[in-house]
């Protein structure tokens, strides 16, 4: 079975398990806050900011091409499964599942180093592109995954850049063909009260408290402040 199909089946199974038992998944054991568990069984949210949180110093359209080029390369080399990607002015968000043979640290070291070298070569500069390492957050629960999925794609709306997610050009929702995506749209559509996933993402209501989601993504294992908003 192709790697992408197996990966999609694994994530579909993860969401289906939540639907069947109503309790989510058997969570991984608790871990120290600063230690990231490497696993290929569950997806990660990954985020990294630009140096000094300033805007990346090349045009966003060119930066998108650079990021996409390297994401396609690491998908082939490290067999990752990319479920979502959003590029903002000074940071990015990614949802990714790794392969058994490679851990997230190996993947991200290669990815960020490659992106930095290409950006600096393109711009003729030698500065740090990223303001430190990436932040990885393991997501081992289907409800959590759905809320994080919605949260990252709403970033352009929350930043005041656009009023609808489909109008933001630097997102895998809009430019899926540029990226090596393993999409989960069918599985997600079965879990949300909308026929169209775009409409669900544009609705600003979350099952979990949005500030709790944001804080939860700073942990190495996602655990939000749970508060029903509707």
Question: Topology, pairings included?
Answer:
Blueprint: H1 3-21, E1 44-49, H2 60-78, E2 81-87, E3 91-97, H3 104-123, E4 135-138, H4 142-153, H5 155-158, H6 185-189, H7 197-202, H8 210-216
Antiparallel strand pairs: 1-3, 1-4, 2-3
Can you walk through the features of this model?
The structure is a single chain. This protein has 230 residues and is an alpha+beta fold. The chain has one domain (3-20, 35-216): Alpha-Beta Plaits (2-Layer Sandwich), CATH 3.30.70.1290. It has helices at residues 3-21, 60-78, 104-123, 142-153, 155-158, 185-189, 197-202, 210-216, and strands spanning 44-49, 81-87, 91-97, 135-138. It has a 4-stranded antiparallel beta sheet, sandwiched between helices. Strand 2 (81-87) and strand 3 form a beta hairpin. The protein is globular.
Short description:
Helix 2 runs antiparallel to helix 3. The N and C termini lie far apart (41 Å). The chain has helices spanning 3-21, 60-78, 104-123, 142-153, 155-158, 185-189, 197-202, 210-216, and strands at 44-49, 81-87, 91-97, 135-138.
Strands ordered across the widest β-sheet: 2-3-1-4
CATH topology: Alpha-Beta Plaits
Q: What helical percentage do the residues reach?
A: 40-55%
Determine Rg (CA atoms, Å).
17 Å
Secondary-structure-derived class? alpha+beta
What is the level-2 CATH architecture name? Answer: 2-Layer Sandwich
Shape verdict: globular
Taking pLDDT < 50 over at least 5 consecutive residues as the criterion, the unreliable ranges are 18-27
Mean pLDDT: 84
The biggest sheet amounts to:
4 strands, antiparallel
Provide the β-strand percentage band.
Answer: 5-15%
So how many helices?
Answer: 8
Following the backbone from N to C, one meets helices and strands in this order, namely HEHEEHEHHHHH
Distance from first to last alpha carbon? 41 Å
């Amino acid at each position: 079975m192709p790697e992408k199909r197996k990966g999609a089946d694994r994530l579909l199974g993860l969401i289906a398990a939540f639907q069947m038992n109503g309790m989510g998944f058997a969570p991984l054991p608790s871990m120290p806050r600063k230690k990231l568990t490497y696993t290929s069984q569950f997806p990660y949210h990954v985020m990294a900011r630009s140096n000094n949180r300033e805007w990346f110093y090349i045009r966003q359209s060119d930066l998108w091409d650079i990021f996409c080029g390297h994401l396609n390369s690491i998908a082939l080399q490290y067999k990752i499964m990319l479920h979502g990607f959003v590029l903002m002015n000074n940071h990015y968000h990614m949802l990714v599942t790794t392969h058994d043979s490679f851990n997230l640290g190996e993947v991200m070291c290669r990815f960020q180093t490659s992106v930095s070298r290409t950006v600096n070569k393109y711009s003729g500069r030698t500065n740090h592109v990223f303001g430190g390492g990436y932040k990885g957050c393991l997501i081992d629960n289907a409800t959590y995954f759905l809320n994080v999925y919605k949260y990252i794609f709403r970033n352009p709306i929350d930043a005041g850049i656009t009023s609808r997610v489909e109008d933001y050009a630097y997102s895998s929702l809009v430019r899926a063909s540029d990226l090596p995506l393993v999409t989960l749209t069918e599985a997600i559509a079965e879990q949300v009260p909308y026929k169209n996933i775009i409409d669900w993402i544009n609705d600003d209501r979350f099952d979990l408290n949005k500030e709790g989601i944001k804080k939860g993504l700073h942990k190495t294992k996602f655990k939000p402040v749970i508060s029903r908003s509707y």
